[in-house]
Amino acid sequence: MNEPRLVGLVAENSPDFVRQAQAVWGAGAAFVTLRQKDDEQRLRAAPVSDIRVPTSGHGWVDVQFSNRTDPELAQISFTSGTEGDPKGVLLSHANLADVVERLNAVMAVTDEIREYVGVPVYHSFGFGRCRAVSVAGGRAYLPARGFNPVEINGLLEKDEINAISAVPSLWRVLLQTAAVSARAAEKVRWIEIGSQSMAAAEKRALATLFPQAKIVQHYGLTEASRTTFLEVGAASDDKLDSVGRALGQVQLRISEDGRIQIRGPHVATGMLIAGARVDPRDADGWLTTNDRGQLQDGYLYFAGRSDDMINCGGLKLAPDALEASIAAELGGLGSFAVCRIEDPVRGDGILIAATPEALARDEQFLAAASAAALAFGVNARDATHVVRVDALPRTDTGKVKREALSRQFRTEIASRQAPPALIASGGATEQQLSLQLGAILGAPSVQGSDTFIRLVASFPVDALAIVVEFSRRPEKPILESVFLASQLRQRIRLRG
After folding, report:
1. d(Cα 345, Cα 466) in Å, to the nearest integer?
2. Averaged pLDDT score across all residues of the chain
3. Interior angle at CA 136, CA 131 and CA 138, nearest 5
4. What is the radius of gyration, based on Cα positions, of the chain?
5. Where are the domains of the chain?
6. Number of helices and strands (H, E) in the chain?
7. DSSP assigned state of 281
8. Residues 431-483: tens digit of each pLDDT
9. What does the longest C-alpha to C-alpha distance in the chain come to?
10. Distance between CA 294 and CA 242 in Å, rounded?
11. Mean predicted confidence (pLDDT) in 67-76
C-alpha cells in the first residue's frame, strides 16, 4: 500500500464531513478521523500534515463518489472499541470499493434511493452508506439531532426519503415509539441494519412494519466492514437468527477456539497498535476476530465477543444469547444488558444491568436469567445478580460497554466490604470474626494465622463452596478472606 499525505478530519456528523473526505481524496491524500482538533492520542499514532474541522449542519449530502479500486491508503479509522485503547485501521480505496459493490448488489439499490442515514457519518457504517448511495446515483440525508422516528415519519409522508439505515438499538426505538405510520412505512424501499445483535422477532417486526422494503442486516468490523449480509425478507425462520452469509470474494471460517475468521478484499492490510503498524492477517490472509460464532449451511450465527463470554463453572455463556432469551421472556430488549462478573465459586457469574426503562422486577430478571442459563446447561442462580443503572454505557456506534458495567458493580461491592481494620490482628474485632468464621466452617476454633491446609480436616461436607474458595490460596491466613466467606456462608444457609 502506498503512503499518501495524511490529513486530520475532525468527526462531525454533517454533510461537510463527507464533502471534506471527498476533497481530501481528490487532492491525492488520505484522512485520519479525529475526535477533536487536539486529539493527542490519535495524532501521536498517525501524524498529519494539517487538520480540517468540518462545519456542523444537517440535510442532504451532495457529493459524488466513484469506486476507486487501487490499493492506495484512503483513510485511517480508529475502532470505537468497547474496551481498551482504540486501534487505527488502515483502509485502502480497494477495501472500500469492495464493500460498496457487494452492498449495492445485495440491496439492489437504484438511483432513486433517497436515504435517511441514522448513524454518524464519521463511523464505518454511516460513511459506507453515504458512499454506497452516492455511487448508485442517489442522495443521503443527515438529520439535525440524530435518529428521530417522528422526523422519519414526516419525511416519508412528504415523499422526501424512501430508505433508512440504523443500528439495532435505534430500530428498537422506532418500533417502541410506533411513530412511523403504516401508510408512511409502505413508502420505504431499502433498509440496512447495522452490525449489532438483533433478535429474530425484532427483524420480523421490521419486515411487518415495512412490507415494501428490501431489508438487509450486515455483520462486520471496522477492519472488515460488511462481511456478511442477511436478506431479512427472504430468510427462513431459522436463518433469521443468523447475521447472513458471505458474498463475492469474502470467505468465512471458525477457528478451533470458536472465533470468527475472515478473508477477502475488504479486509484491512494494516493496523496501528501500541504505536506500531502491523498486518492483522495471518500468512494465509485470514483475519481472526475476537467474535465468536458458528457456521451452518454457510450462514454465520454470531455468539458474542470472546472477551465478553461468561465462563460459569467451566461452561461458556454468551451475553447476547442470554439477553435474547431474557427479552423473549420479559421484553424490554435494549433496556438491560448482561455482563460477566467474577464469582468466587464458579469463576464467572452473571450480572444484569437494568435501566429505568426496564419494567421487570429484580426477581423476574433473576428467574429469567436462571432459566436462560439452565437452557445452556448452567445452573447459575446463586451466581446471578441484578444492578440498577441510570443508563447503559455505549460506544458511539451503540455497542454496550459491558466491562464498564462490570467494573461499576465491582466498585459498589468493594465499597460495601469491611474496612481493613476489621481484620487487624490482636484485637476484639478479630476475636469476633474468629468465632463467626469458626461457626461458618464448623471448625472448633479459628486463629488469625490458621490456613486452609491446617483447617481442612474440620470442614463440614456442606461447606464445599468455601473449601473451593480457600483452596485457591491455601498459603494465606484464612481471616484475610472473611468477606468472601461471609458471602458463601449465606449461600450455604440458603441451601439448608
Report:
1. 8
2. 84
3. 85
4. 26
5. 6-304, 309-416, 420-495
6. 15, 24
7. B
8. 555 555 555 555 555 666 666 555 555 544 344 444 544 555 555 455 444 44
9. 83
10. 9
11. 95
Whole-angstrom CA distances from 438 to 165, 370, 425, 479 are 62, 32, 16, 10
Whole-angstrom distance, CA of residue 45 vs CA of residue 276: 8
Do the Cβ atoms of 331 and 340 come closer than 8 Å?
no
Partners of 287 in the beta sheet? 262, 281
The grid cell for 442 is: 464448623
H/E run at residue 495: helix 482-495
267, 95 contact by CB (below 8 A) = yes
Instruction: Please return the burial class of 53, using the count of CB atoms within 10 Å of its CB with bins 0-12, 13-18 and 19+.
Output: middle
Give me the half-sphere count of Cα atoms (radius 13 Å) on the Cβ side of residue 399. 21
Note if the pTM is more than 0.90.
no
φ, ψ (nearest 5 deg) of residue 92: -90, 165
Q: Which CATH class is domain 309-416?
A: alpha beta
C-alpha cell read off for 66: 466513484
pLDDT class of 299 with cuts at 50, 70, 90: very high
Pairing verdict, β 270-273 and 88-92? antiparallel
Q: What letter does residue 5 receive in the DSSP assignment?
A: P
CATH superfamily of 6-304: ANL, N-terminal domain (3.40.50.12780)
Contact 469, 488 (CB under 8 A): yes
Separation between Cα atoms, residue 486 and residue 437, nearest integer Å = 8
DSSP 415: H
End-to-end CA distance of the chain: 67
What cell numbers appear for 421 in the block?
A: 481494620
pLDDT digit string, tens, across residues 105-154: 999 999 999 999 999 999 999 999 999 999 999 999 999 999 999 999 99
Sequential DSSP letters for 209-220: H-TT-EEEEEEE
What is the bridge-based pairing of β-strands 59-61 and 299-305?
unpaired
Record the cell numbers describing residue 397, joined without a space: 456506534
Amino acid letter, residue 6: L
- What distance in Å separates the CA atoms of residue 114 and residue 162, rounded to the nearest whole number? 5
